[in-house]
Write a structure and sequence with these properties.
The structure is a homodimer. In chain A, strands 1-2 form a two-stranded antiparallel sheet. In chain A, helix 4 packs antiparallel against helix 9. By secondary structure, chain A is mainly alpha-helical. Chains A and B meet through helix 2, helix 4, helix 6, helix 7 and helix 8 of A and helix 2, helix 4, helix 6, helix 7 and helix 8 of B. Chains A, B: GO terms for molecular function: (2E,6E)-farnesyl diphosphate synthase activity; metal ion binding.
Chain lengths: 301, 301
């Protein structure tokens, strides 16, 4: 078993692999208006942990599949994640000027172009999914299942539904259950999609897909609570953003409802629960997904 | 051969068929936040000619395929068309308060919800496409080809690219070629997609798909020029919107560049060219597509 620090280096190299492919995602030969292309690439290449695409690659490998064949779907989920951030930052939504220390898309390219770049990234994601079949010979049946699940987990019943609930709830979330509904859809749905999509690439059985789903929902909630905790006790330098922003914006969070200590305990429990689900499924090659769960629990940014 | 008036009734009944299916597109059993569902349905059910979905159905029939099996893809293209109108109407884009005599989406549900409803409709469109396989047994390979083409024709290289070019060109389009680039992508690309998608449903050959493409591009441009002509000589009552709006907004149009008479001539030529491409392909059942071309040329709204 590698140490956490070595695993951190592995994750960094995987993120680089994803970024190298993202740079090529809009070939110069494609006839796309210049500013639209720039606006799309600006947000695609604006950094981030590349966690979701890495999960696609690791889930494919956990099932004995090829990471290379999973790459088009990995790019797709990063495009969906990126579009959601571009639209989320718009003045009509969260009205953010900066993200990860860089100006947000609409601050650079204007609101209209930011809306169009988001639309184009979302549309392009589905194109990228189809390339797992075209480019790597993954059976059409499996790639169509990934298409169906991407539209399910990213749409009105998934991520966009979570965004809408978050927006509607801003006037006052009073119950932990309401907060969990929002996290479930805003954060966990795309994580669950990423894991299942990697599974589909490798031809996972229903039972294996169910184990990935269980792993993903527990991990997704742990990830979100860890985010809330880091907003309270984290290091601004490492996070690359100001801490205590939730408190300042009067955002309700897990620590708000159950306290810091119980939140930390919850992250540990959820991580253990996630790992147990995966171990019980006897996947061919689960080590890196299990390490990823620990890595995320211990992260400081 | 039926008369134009009887054909008009047929088109109206096809539009009703599409609308009856659109009402069911977001089943009540789906867990979607209430206002998001309302906002999506508001724009989906706000009328319109339903021309693109009808083209999907007619192209499938022209190739000897089943209209019923083509219906999920027909709904998909109407969802894409609808999302593009919702985002187009936003204050940051065209800033329109009314469309077809009804308040635009953001005037009723607010800007944030209109952005999310558009995103959700676009995402849902891809879900609907997959149902041609799930619900009607169209081979996964064909449905995946439709998915790939939808993301191509609706994305950065297609419709969204056209929107971006239109926006960037607002400061002054000086050449007819620039105007044609915008029409090609803003209008014709979705029409071409609709025809090809119907073809795919019916298992069209490459040669047949090429004929549908040629038909679509000629028809799409004719449709757009006819729109420009109706804006000058049309009846406000029939159009359901004020005429001479292009002139008032200083929008360059086909009549602006080549005059009204030459524009009318161009519509006739393009329609003839479209029909010839289709006739030469010897499709099993092309009559209704041919009638549709004449019908669109003669329309007064």
């Amino acid at each position: 078993m590698k140490t956490t620090s070595t695993f951190g280096e592995y994750i960094a190299s995987q993120a680089e692999r994803v970024e190298a492919a993202l740079i090529e995602a809009l070939p110069a030969s494609w006839d796309v208006p210049g500013s639209l292309r720039e606006s799309m690439n600006y947000s695609l290449m604006a950094g981030g942990k590349r966690l979701r695409p890495i999960m696609v690659l690791e889930a494919a490998e956990a099932l004995g599949g090829s990471q290379a064949a999973a790459l088009p779907v990995a790019l797709a989920i990063e495009m969906v994640h990126t579009y959601s951030l571009v639209h989320d930052d718009l003045p009509a939504m969260d009205n953010d000027d900066y993200r990860r220390g860089k100006l947000t898309n609409h601050k650079v390219y204007g609101e209209a172009m930011a809306i169009l770049a988001g639309d184009a990234l979302l549309t392009q994601a589905f194109y990228s999914v189809t390339q797992a079949h075209r480019g790597f010979g993954i059976p059409a049946e499996r790639v169509l299942a990934i298409t169906e699940e991407l539209s399910f987990y990213a749409g009105a019943r998934g991520m966009v539904g979570g965004q809408a609930a978050d927006m509607l709830g801003e006037q006052g979330i009073t119950k932990l259950e309401e907060l969990e509904f929002i996290h479930l859809h805003k954060t966990s749905d795309l994580i669950v999609f990423s894991l299942r999509a990697g599974g589909h690439i490798a031809g996972a059985t229903e039972a294996q897909l169910n184990a990935l789903t269980e792993f993903g929902y527990a991990l997704g909630l742990a990830f979100q609570i860890q985010d809330d905790i880091l907003d309270i006790i984290g290091d601004e330098q490492k996070l690359g953003k100001p801490v205590k922003s939730d408190e300042k914006q009067q955002k309700v969070t897990y620590p708000y409802f159950i306290g810091l200590e119980a939140s930390e305990q919850k992250v540990k429990e959820l991580t253990k629960q996630a790992k147990t689900a995966l171990i019980q499924a006897n996947l061919p090659n689960p080590d890196r997904l299990l390490q990823l769960a620990d890595y995320l629990m211990q992260r400081d940014h």
